[in-house]
């Protein structure tokens, strides 16, 4: 385990992706000298690794596929996959997952944090048709206070999505606890787990502001 990261011991509902590739990419992502193009690429690749684990229970049904030499047993999705990135940093995660699963549809939730109260403010919400019976992956690279993701999940439930999985890159212990307290049915996957938040609600050591580092703002 790398410095700054801790185990997910005794953190129900949280799954830490354990793989040397993920550790190397998280280290490079955290590095303050990693420029936006490299940061985006790493975040997209990590999103694929996290989604690979988060979709382990993705429902498929048997389907026969014709190879040039004859029929072979195969699988197809039992229900569509819908990705719901939380704007704006979640967009880079969706880009990564879409490369692996191009048939996924994408909804969007726009939220920003009131920097004084740290409470989420919603400014945009849109889901693809049929999202109610899809398998839904909620994407936000930073699970910090957990307030935005808890509000996003609440909104999705209100709109008829009974259950979803959350994929992030860096989670904080308090954020995981908050999100699970609000949504005990939520399973959360991440590539790193940090202990603390600072007074602004940033994950420490974290990686800074993911949106700024993705978009160079
Ligand atoms: N959002 C970020 O981009 N980084 C944090 O550490 C917390 C929220």
Topology:
Layout: E1 14-16, H1 20-30, H2 36-54, E2 60-67, E3 70-77, E4 81-87, H3 90-100, E5 105-106, E6 108-113, E7 120-126, E8 135-139, E9 142-143, H4 147-158, E10 165-167, E11 170-172, H5 173-182, E12 187-190, E13 192-194, E14 196-197, E15 203-204, H6 210-215
Parallel strand pairs: 1-12, 4-5, 4-6, 4-8, 8-10, 9-11, 10-12, 11-13
Antiparallel strand pairs: 2-3, 6-7, 14-15
Helix pairs in contact: 1-2, 2-3
The protein binds uracil (URA).
Would you kindly provide a written description of the structure presented here, covering whatever features stand out?
This protein is an alpha/beta fold and 217 residues long. It has a single domain (14-215), classed as Rossmann fold. It is built from six helices and 15 strands. The protein has helices at residues 20-30, 36-54, 90-100, 147-158, 173-182, 210-215; strands at 14-16, 60-67, 70-77, 81-87, 105-106, 108-113, 120-126, 135-139, 142-143, 165-167, 170-172, 187-190, 192-194, 196-197, 203-204. The strands form four sheets. Strands 1, 4, 5, 6, 7, 8, 10 and 12 form an eight-stranded mixed beta sheet that branches. A three-stranded parallel beta sheet has the order 9-11-13. Strands 2-3 form a two-stranded antiparallel sheet. Helix 3 links the parallel strand 4 (81-87) and strand 5. The longest helix has 19 residues, at 36-54. It starts with 13 loop residues before the first strand and ends with a helix. Mean pLDDT is 94; it is low at 1-7. The structure holds uracil.
């Amino acid at each position: 385990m790398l410095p700054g990261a801790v185990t997910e011991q005794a953190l129900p509902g949280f799954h830490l992706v354990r793989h040397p590739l993920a550790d190397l990419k998280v280290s490079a992502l955290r590095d303050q000298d990693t420029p936006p193009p490299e940061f985006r690429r790493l975040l997209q690749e990590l999103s694929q690794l996290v989604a690979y684990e988060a979709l382990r229970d993705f429902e498929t049904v048997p389907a026969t596929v014709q190879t040039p030499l004859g029929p072979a047993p195969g699988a197809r999705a039992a229900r569509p996959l819908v990705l719901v990135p939380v704007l704006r940093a979640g967009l880079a995660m969706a880009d990564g997952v879409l490369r692996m699963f191009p048939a996924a549809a994408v909804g969007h939730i726009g939220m920003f944090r009131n920097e004084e109260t740290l409470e989420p403010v919603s400014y945009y919400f849109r889901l693809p048709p049929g999202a109610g019976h899809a398998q839904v992956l909620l994407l936000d690279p930073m699970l910090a206070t957990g307030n935005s993701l808890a509000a996003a999940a609440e909104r999705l439930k209100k709109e008829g999505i009974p259950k979803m999985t959350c994929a992030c890159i860096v989670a904080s212990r308090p954020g995981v606890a908050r999100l699970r307290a609000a949504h005990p049915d939520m399973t959360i996957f991440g590539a790193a787990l940090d202990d603390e938040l600072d007074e602004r609600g940033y994950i420490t050591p974290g990686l800074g502001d993911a949106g700024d580092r993705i978009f160079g703002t």
